[in-house]
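Q: Given only this backbone (212 positions), what sequence would you predict?
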């Protein structure tokens, strides 16, 4: 599903990330683990095509995303990659329905309100389609962010520290939500975290070490 090789990235001339090789099969579930400063979020952003690495190759679903120009990369990301960030980045002026329709529009796919309602229903949000982000609880807003990430049936679902600020019960709920939605899409799931509570629940781990 994705293959990374000879990857390096640096900020201000200092190397913050090195990945010699890593690959994942379609539908596999992975954790990226490591201490603060080891490059977990950087690696997630490179997988998403948000950052371009200083060197190396990143192939997602058979496409080398490091070779795509900006507009092609935006279209590819919208159609094949779903992302749940630490900050949910819901657009406050839009309803929940329109936040998800916008995700379809930006990906260059047909806007499909039936698909949006289907996803919202699977996340127990059917009654929130017309609500605005400020009218949602944190848990509801997080589920909307997951709905937006999966509405285009991505092949790769990425999440950055989705449980770090949650108590044990909410941690289990958030993790279960990501797992179930990844399975529903047949997506490869990659979670970047330092939360040891979910380590035992994921079968595959990629460990990063802080660069000297």
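A: Predicted residues:
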């Amino acid at each position: 599903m994705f293959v990374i090789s000879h990857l390096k990235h640096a900020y201000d001339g200092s190397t913050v990330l090195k990945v010699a090789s890593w690959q994942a099969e379609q539908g596999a579930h992975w954790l990226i683990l490591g201490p603060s400063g080891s490059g977990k979020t950087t690696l997630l952003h490179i997988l998403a095509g948000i950052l371009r690495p200083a060197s190396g190759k990143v192939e997602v679903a058979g496409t080398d995303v490091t070779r795509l120009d900006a507009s092609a990369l935006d279209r590819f990301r919208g159609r094949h990659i779903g992302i749940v960030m630490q900050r949910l980045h819901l657009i406050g002026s839009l309803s929940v329905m329109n936040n998800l329709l916008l995700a379809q529009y930006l990906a260059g796919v047909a806007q499909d309100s039936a698909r949006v309602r289907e996803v919202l229903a699977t996340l127990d949000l059917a009654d929130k389609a017309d609500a605005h982000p400020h009218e949602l609880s944190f848990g509801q807003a997080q589920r909307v962010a997951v709905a937006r990430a999966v509405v285009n049936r991505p092949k790769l679902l990425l999440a950055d520290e989705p449980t770090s600020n949650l108590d044990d019960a909410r941690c289990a709920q958030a993790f279960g939500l990501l797992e179930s939605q990844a399975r529903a899409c047949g997506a490869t799931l990659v979670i970047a975290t330092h939360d040891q509570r979910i380590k035992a629940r994921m079968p595959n781990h990629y460990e990063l070490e802080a660069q000297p």
